[in-house]
Amino acid sequence: MTTDALTTELEPSDLIDFDALLSPDELKLRNQVRAFVQAEIKPNIAAWYEDAHFPLEIVPKMAKLGLLGMHLNGYGCAGRSAVEYGLAGAELEAGDSGLRTFVSVQGSLAMSAIHKHGSEEQKKQWLPAMAAGQAIGCFGLTEPTAGSDPSSMTTFARRDGDDWVLNGTKRWIGLASVAQVAVIWAQTEGGIRGFVVPTETPGFTATPIEPKLSMRASIQCEIELTEVRLPAEAVLPGAVGLRGPFSCLNEARYGIIWGAMGAARDAFEDALAYAQTRMQFEKPLAGYQLTQQKLVDMALEINKGFLLALHIGRKKDAGTLGLHQISLGKLNNCREAIAICREARTILGGNGITLDYSPLRHANNLESVRTYEGTDEVHTLILGNKLTGVPAFR
């Protein structure tokens, strides 16, 4: 199948000629990633999800496509635009949230932290290897009792001569058990700081969280840090306080705006194809008014969601994006995507609870996507603060 054929054949939800809004380079990248997902992810995702398996063998293939740290410049990174990064994220999440999450943790979190806040030595040591898929990174911010409120983290880094010594626990840390490097955020006497921690450092232990009902083709871990001793140069020199990790979280939140719509689109396509072939009362489900209403409602929200993602991406590329607009996109598109996936499942009937079809798998994954990088409640309060000028977080 050619990339040109992919443009139209797999976009039955497009009612607005969305591709006309994209440049030739953006379409080319989008179609390359779409072809990759069709060939490498979709034939295997049901088994990976069922077995709770993250396919490490796919990492070099993603690197070859330039997907790792793709929005960063230099150090072997592709230097793609925000819109190109978003388009790639939508295609990856059409395959599965777990595979897009890998690209997000690697590029938007771990690599972005080093790229934005690291020393030149840290950048040279880690970024080329991470862009090439030769090293995997993770991002240790959240804790068992510090999720939406990272300022309450208890992980602490103390000075011991020229060294730093870290103690604490991190939870829901993607990729930690397979990573070679971790960016760990910790309290210090001088405020919250970030540390580049090789995972082979004594005292660093990562344990996968199992079993899970969501994000099964992905890895999330609890990290124990017990007297982890690091040299002075392990600290990220450019990050003091929560602005450091938040600058990375906003990169990841931006990717979710696109990714959630990719999952919704894929669920819609499964439901539409099923409705066109499933016969009930001597005609296909697609011939019934209630089914058509469901399909139309889903398609409308998918089109609106992609338009919102593109608008936010264009503003990000232009340097005019407000942080509250990232919250707007993340809140809206996650909320609509999970509703679309659940509605798509209803068209599939009982067959929709099997892994032969994608909607319920996507809906389960989106429970996690809706929660991480800021819950609905957190983003609602960010937008409420923007509208009223009154912070209501406490």
From TrEMBL:
Q: According to its UniProt record, which cofactors does this protein need?
A: FAD
Q: Which residues form a coiled coil?
A: none
GO terms of molecular function:
fatty-acyl-CoA binding; flavin adenine dinucleotide binding; glutaryl-CoA dehydrogenase activity
Answer yes or no on keyword Phosphoprotein.
Answer: no
The Acyl-CoA dehydrogenase/oxidase C-terminal domain extends over 247-386
Enzyme Commission designation: 1.3.8.6
Acyl-CoA dehydrogenase/oxidase N-terminal domain location: 24-134
Q: What general EC class does the enzyme of this chain belong to?
A: oxidoreductase
Q: In its UniProt record, which GO terms are filed under biological process?
A: fatty acid beta-oxidation using acyl-CoA dehydrogenase; fatty-acyl-CoA biosynthetic process
Which keywords does this Swiss-Prot/TrEMBL entry list? FAD, Flavoprotein, Oxidoreductase, Transit peptide
Record-linked SUPFAM superfamilies: Acyl-CoA dehydrogenase C-terminal domain-like, Acyl-CoA dehydrogenase NM domain-like
Spell out the protein name for this chain.
glutaryl-CoA dehydrogenase (ETF)
Q: What is the lineage of its organism?
A: Bacteria, Bacillati, Actinomycetota, Actinomycetes, Micrococcales
